[in-house]
């Protein structure tokens, strides 16, 4: 007795690859939208409470301005180009600090990780110095660097050096000793050891240090500009406080948060690409 190909009991229907992929994409989109909606619930609640509080005058307008006034201040600052100017100055300070502090942190981390002698002499002092907050360096830096740009860049660079150096050192420490023994057998030069052993194995830790350095630089920038600056996004908050215009302070706070979030998203994207490269490499 022959069975028909239309009989589902004998020849079950197999879903097509195309429909399966479409279903998978739709599922992922729905999950992402759900995550985004969940993340927006708290900001929406805060905005609603803010609107209700200003509408019912729970607090004076000088303390809590209306959302419409904050939006108007943002548009005025944007249209005049003043806001972009402050953000550009702050971004320039962060960029120079990352270049200086990141390079110094990598050099220090590599030196302590690859040389037991350097680590023995340098790490105890570095461990103590790394406990000092950035604000604790300001009085000393004012004496040597004044109150101009060198002070700001020096203070922010110090905040970058520490996480980059520590993560670089940890990344090298976690590399199996057998790989270094192999490099000695093949008589690798220092650059070959760094290129063929350290960078591929310690890449996640190195990137983690860079990521922490970027975020520390942005946070330290705001503190430094709040204390000693006449330009930048942190100074915009000080200026708003001095003029008793809380709307300017809120605009600066929102911009600081937006830039910090943008940096975090960019770093996450780079980290994802880095993980893909490491999977392909190994």
Overall description:
- The protein is an all-alpha fold and 282 residues long.
- It has a single domain, classed as MetI-like fold (Orthogonal Bundle), CATH 1.10.3720.
- 82% of the residues lie in helices and 0% in strands.
- The chain is flat, with a radius of gyration of 27 Å.
- 26% of the residues are buried.
Features:
282 residues; mainly alpha; MetI-like fold; 0% strand; flat
How is the topology of this model organized?
Layout: H1 17-55, H2 67-80, H3 82-114, H4 116-129, H5 134-145, H6 149-173, H7 177-185, H8 190-227, H9 233-242, H10 246-281
Helix pairs in contact: 2-10, 3-4, 3-6, 3-8, 3-9, 5-6, 6-8, 8-9, 8-10, 9-10
């Amino acid at each position: 007795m022959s069975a028909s190909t239309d009989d589902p009991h004998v020849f079950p229907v197999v879903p097509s690859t195309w429909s399966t992929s479409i279903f998978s994409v739709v599922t992922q989109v729905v999950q992402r939208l759900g995550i985004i909606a969940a993340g927006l619930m708290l900001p929406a609640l805060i905005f609603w409470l803010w609107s209700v509080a200003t509408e019912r005058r729970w607090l004076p307008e000088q303390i809590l301005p209306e959302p419409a006034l904050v939006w108007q201040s943002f548009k005025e600052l944007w249209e005049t180009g003043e806001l972009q100017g402050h953000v550009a100055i702050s971004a320039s300070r962060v960029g120079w600090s990352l270049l200086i502090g990141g390079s110094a942190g990598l050099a220090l981390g590599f030196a302590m990780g690859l040389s037991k002698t350097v680590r023995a002499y340098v790490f105890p002092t570095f461990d103590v110095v790394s406990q000092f907050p950035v604000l604790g360096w300001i009085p000393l830096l004012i004496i040597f660097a004044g109150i101009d740009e060198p002070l700001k860049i020096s203070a922010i660079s110090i905040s970058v050096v520490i996480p980059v150096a520590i993560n670089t050192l940890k990344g090298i420490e976690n590399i199996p000793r057998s790989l270094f023994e192999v490099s000695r057998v093949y008589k690798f030069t220092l650059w070959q050891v760094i290129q063929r052993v350290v960078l591929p194995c310690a890449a996640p830790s190195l990137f983690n240090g860079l990521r922490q350095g970027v975020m520390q630089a942005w946070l330290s920038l705001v503190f430094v500009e709040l204390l000693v600056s006449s330009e930048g996004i942190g100074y915009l908050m000080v200026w708003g406080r001095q003029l008793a215009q809380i709307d300017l302070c809120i605009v600066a706070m929102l911009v600081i948060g937006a830039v910090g979030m943008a940096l975090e998203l960019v770093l996450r994207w780079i980290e994802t690409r880095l993980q893909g490269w490491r999977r392909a490499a190994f």
